[in-house]
């Protein structure tokens, strides 16, 4: 069997990243995003971009019964996995291979309980710095997929080889793991540390790349997972921890993990997947993990409003003048401010007066800035605005 048809469930950062790669290599008739009709309509109204390029994705309704896919990729958050199982039901046949890009150590079991563990190839997504703001995905490092089977799954060797041959054909970076369970727990250790530390300290990868409290908390949370893994029969070492901390140092300082992106967008986070899982397993073994306990409690407080999240910058209209003055006076926070503005606009569009202020401020920035594409897209989206003043400001900017 060869993989000729790919279906992806979930259009988040990883779904877009890998969906764009497969579409460019295979054509959009061989790759489909599967979603309900409401999500498909939303996609039609606002196109997705990957590193500034409009994505030509084919969308398939989850209610359409068609020939099953050869490969189904789950690329949703853990909070949406139950819904995703229903979305995928008509895409999976007897010979379909399934991989999960979800964080954590439990998604394969959940998916396998619905569709059969015999279809699952374990997978870990590693090393990408993709950031999705609104419908725009940017990344500098694509990372790779680590795939493998468990020691008692030798009957899946043929499926694994088929998957690897497909990755070779489409030029997708991957590694074939001899010990996929070790890789799963290693990535889990990393996620528990970096995702939660960046969330609590409301920063970016830079926050944990430099010495300081946030970095120490990240490493402390990872050490607790390392201890827990031993009780679960997986040997993680200090060398594993150091390798993953070093990996974080290679990512774009302005990037951020998915949990932080959820926090900025006021979405429910995957805290139960990270420290929630750690604390449940710790209870089973009679262990105490104070750092993960602190992170769990703080993130819950942030999500319930007991701690007000500052975001990169508060770019709501009441604070916009102050933020724009910072943007004019100091380029140090340029990227963070502009991305905060784009995120705000995607969720709650600015008023006419605010849009004019923003465009006028953009006009004073360096035209050779790396952020030019992001700024230009904001302006271009307003070039046909119903208000003549907004249109004039936008077109003046574009024609300068």
Q: Could you please describe the fold and organization of this structure?
A:
By secondary structure, the chain is of the alpha/beta class. The protein has 3 domains: 6-178, 3-Layer(aba) Sandwich (Rossmann fold), CATH 3.40.50.720; 182-303, N-(1-d-carboxylethyl)-l-norvaline Dehydrogenase, domain 2, CATH 1.10.1040; 317-398, no CATH class. Helix content is 50%, strand content 11%. It has helices at residues 13-26, 37-45, 81-87, 107-115, 157-170, 180-200, 205-209, 213-231, 238-248, 258-264, 272-285, 290-303, 320-329, 334-347, 352-362, 372-381, 388-398; strands at 6-9, 31-35, 49-50, 53-54, 59-61, 71-74, 97-100, 122-126, 131-133, 136-138, 144-148, 174-176. The chain has a 5-stranded parallel β-sheet. Helix 6 (180-200) runs antiparallel to helix 8 (213-231) and helix 11 (272-285) packs antiparallel against helix 12 (290-303). The radius of gyration is 22 Å and the shape is globular.
